[in-house]
Amino acid sequence: xxxxxxxxAQSNPMVxxxxxxxxxxxxxxxxxxxxxxxxxxTGEMALTxxxxxxxxxxxxxxxxxxxxVPALAARLDAEGLGELIVIVGHPDGPFEPxxxxxxxxxxxxxxxxxxxxxxxxxxARYAKHHLPNYSVFDEYRVFIPGDELLVMxxxxxDVALIICEDLWRDGGPVGRVLDAEAGLLIVINASPFERDKxxxxxxxxxxxxxxxxxxxxxxxIVGGQDDLVFDGDSVVVDEQGRILARAPxxxxxxxxVDVQADGAGDAAPVDAVRHVxxxxxxxxxxxxxxxxxxxxxxxxxxxxxxxxxxxRDYVEKNGFGSVVLGLSGGIDSAVCAAIAxxxxxxxxVHGVSMPSxxxxxxxxxxxxxxxxxxxxxxxxxxxAELVAPxxxxxxxxxxxxxxxxxxIRGIILMAESNTHGHxxxxxxxxxxxxxxxxxxxxxxxxxxxxxxxVPKTLVWxxxxxxxxxxxxxGEVAPIPENSISxxxxxxxxxxxxxxxxxxxxxxxxxxLEQYVTxxxxxxxxxxxxxxxxxxxxxxxxxxxxxxxxxQGAIGPKISGMAFGRDRRLPITYRRLG
Amino acid sequence: xxxxxxxxAQSNPMVxxxxxxxxxxxxxxxxxxxxxxxxxxTGEMALTxxxxxxxxxxxxxxxxxxxxVPALAARLDAEGLGELIVIVGHPDGPFEPxxxxxxxxxxxxxxxxxxxxxxxxxxARYAKHHLPNYSVFDEYRVFIPGDELLVMxxxxxDVALIICEDLWRDGGPVGRVLDAEAGLLIVINASPFERDKxxxxxxxxxxxxxxxxxxxxxxxIVGGQDDLVFDGDSVVVDEQGRILARAPxxxxxxxxVDVQADGAGDAAPVDAVRHVxxxxxxxxxxxxxxxxxxxxxxxxxxxxxxxxxxxRDYVEKNGFGSVVLGLSGGIDSAVCAAIAxxxxxxxxVHGVSMPSxxxxxxxxxxxxxxxxxxxxxxxxxxxAELVAPxxxxxxxxxxxxxxxxxxIRGIILMAESNTHGHxxxxxxxxxxxxxxxxxxxxxxxxxxxxxxxVPKTLVWxxxxxxxxxxxxxGEVAPIPENSISxxxxxxxxxxxxxxxxxxxxxxxxxxLEQYVTxxxxxxxxxxxxxxxxxxxxxxxxxxxxxxxxxQGAIGPKISGMAFGRDRRLPITYRRLG
Lengths: 577, 577
Hints:
Two copies of one chain form a homodimer.
Chain A: E1 3-10, H1 18-34, E2 39-42, H2 59-78, E3 85-92, E4 111-118, E5 121-127, H3 139-142, E6 149-154, E7 157-163, H4 165-168, H5 172-179, E8 184-189, H6 198-212, E9 215-220, E10 222-225, E11 228-231, E12 235-237, E13 243-246, E14 253-260, E15 273-278, H7 299-317, E16 323-326, H8 331-344, E17 349-353, H9 361-374, E18 377-380, H10 384-394, H11 398-420, E19 423-424, H12 430-435, H13 456-472, H14 481-485, H15 505-517, H16 522-527, H17 532-552
Parallel strand pairs in A: 1-2, 2-3, 6-15, 7-8, 8-9, 16-17, 16-19, 17-18
Antiparallel strand pairs in A: 1-14, 3-4, 4-5, 6-7, 9-12, 10-11, 12-13
Region (Disordered) (chains A, B): 478-497
Function (chains A, B): Catalyzes the ATP-dependent amidation of deamido-NAD to form NAD. Uses L-glutamine as a nitrogen source.
Domain CN hydrolase (chains A, B): 4-261
């Protein structure tokens, strides 16, 4: 059986950074060459980052991307890496617009491609067939689908090449891999992390390998991009579904593996398959490689690592030096501070305690203790003297007055940001955002929301996991026990607790998951056995919170990890009863 | 030649309001029947409103919509309107998901349909073929395309039925209309207003009529829906391209017209065309109808009316009683106040002057004069005493201190909103938003931005048009002359003017149009003859304003009319040099 030494570059590209991304690919090519690899595959759009959204409709961007591909091939060759076959993901175009649109319509003028570089030239190209347009994906909006499968004969092996969604759909190019009798299927991906994604992705890769009787090499990018986190988890599975190699999640890695694949046969020609034969010199692959199979962390560890990576990359890719956040002594700000310290180091994290006349002594102590445990920069700015003149001049009471406290805190954090250039973190969790339990321009102010897709009950679980994880390693647990165990309170009036207003969090989160995430209607949720009155109350809170947001602002649209986009709804609409 | 009396219901649906929208259709049917019409066509998705976004992925919503169609047919019949053939737009489904997606993927389970109601039953259905997925449209995301053209034989005329985008694409169903030898083509639409849209839309309708040798009846919805304004402008054009009838823009209207159409022939069967014959009783059409051909207003009048309708419907459809906005004496807030008064009446508009120590006497006078000219509710809240303690406690200077002034104003407006339930209007124009010349959580605070898609130079033009329009009608011009003629200033420090920081507005707007709206790169714009240094400065302002927004918040995503969505870009990305 012919053998190929295969390298998968699980790298972290930055959208639009053509030079930097090309450097990353070159570095991976040097390492792959040093390891004796015959073939290197990068992730989907590794040359431009992913997703490029409407940049795919900008001709100057597409021209620059298109020029970068042969330039990369030439550099590889000039560095003596020309014998290494390199598969690189990038957009191709501009082409003639696909659609007849209205006057200003930005029609698709690009394809989502993988180019094959060899001996200084671009020797083949594949264009993605299936353009996902659901959940976080909008590819059909900006790309033109391809219609031809590419099969390359390399060192006696027929190697088929597809891109991400092509693997998920029955039929299409993946269906032709079997007919073409390919020995190896390479899939390049930009596949974002979702909770339990590995329970779907690995079985799919395995199933395709067995169905097609083909080794499948799956390479994913890694890193945070706005509200997405790509987790890597690149994997190679043999034709019997056994894992040959697996890269770690949440960090860059070059996965090198020797693949024994069926030799090229002489399958009858298959429609819409293009065959390319690549000459190859002597292989540099020598000796046996040590097995490289990473273990995945458990659910909480994966989530924590995703949150850390997402925040880190948002900070670094935007060029921020530091972050600032308000520390109330509560669980949400404590968890956000711990994520931030894990992401960029406590020395770049600034916490501000902003006690009001309603803040308990305990809350202040909890904030102090958190700052000390984490070792972040810490300051205290009492707000009573700033709130009083506003309340007095405007004659405010009730919720309008409560909101002024939160908004003065927003002003303080923004002033710190404007003075020092910090990114402001807003600490709202998914539950609070869904039911509108926050103040627009107050505690919701900020550029990045680390836990905006984490329900309250999961915030507690993550806090406990992170503390236990520290204790296991003999480190200081970052989160004060009291912040975890005390009843949550907004502390905007005396003796307030969240449960004065909201149902118990476990029940609330369960109903929200059905209503918001699973798009179930009121009747469907009641039919599952939830108390009708509570369902009405919760769904009305969600609806009312949308009304409240409309009054002050739609959003604010804050970046922050989204493990699957829940819903994209019209702003103005009447719900069913 | 057979004659059909045709009624087009240019109505204003509200998204999700199934009962209310059905009542609107019933009212139109009563009027159409009274006018002797044989056939009534409503706009695209008239039963649910448009766009429904991810509501199309919610099974309970689709079930309720699907049930509303036969219910409407039954009510029409019960009211004695069963002989009237009624075409109604609505989503159909839920169907089996179209895609194999990942775990939580909201896959398409609906079609964008037109149902034909007659004698109490649903007698035919057409599903839209071409699902636009560019600019403001995301239909391919949520709908499954149809694949069959519908031709109905009614009173001896073959009537073909298509939906909106189907008309814009060559080939597809519109190509089959000629082959099917239809005498009348009905197109139901949800076609949003854009500047100069009538210069594209009417020629298209005319061209299709002539190409297909068919009378074309084009019916559009009207009204504001979040960022979109549907302008109506329904029209009927004969097979020689002559306008037979045209509805006014920006208001509801029932357009009734007698159509002489080619009688049904016996064309050879055409692939993918379904033929349905509808029995008809005696026509109620008697006598001759007066011609009903509306004149369009000029460019500025159309824009003003679009802005007024968009704001009115945002207020009304969200159930707000009133609006509040800050009045600085400048042109932007003056124009927003005038739009608001035209939209909902001055009695529902609350203006707050919030002078600081840098506000000139002239500015206060201009704000006073505006309030008096418009007759809105007016109050004055000086901010000096509220800003001083914040500046002092935090030791602020420079931009950080300037921003506190704007943010205290934001707190005041939000306190008014929280106390009285007003919708807060934010008065930023498109130029200011593009270059970041505003304060996050300050003057950008608000739920609706009436002029967010109006460049500064156009704001002045609209102000002059509105004043001249008032004078023509012998009314008080709403906008003080001084607000139009004085140099614009943010008044956050002594003697500040916009032109200290920004290039002259005509030049700035010209470059922004190329960079933001037309997606031209820096080199492309310089090649057009613009000064390279100015282009660099402006494009860098746009980039820096995005960075600035990332620091404080992404957005805020504020609703406000968008006459074509400019760009949807990744938040984090590195631009080309």
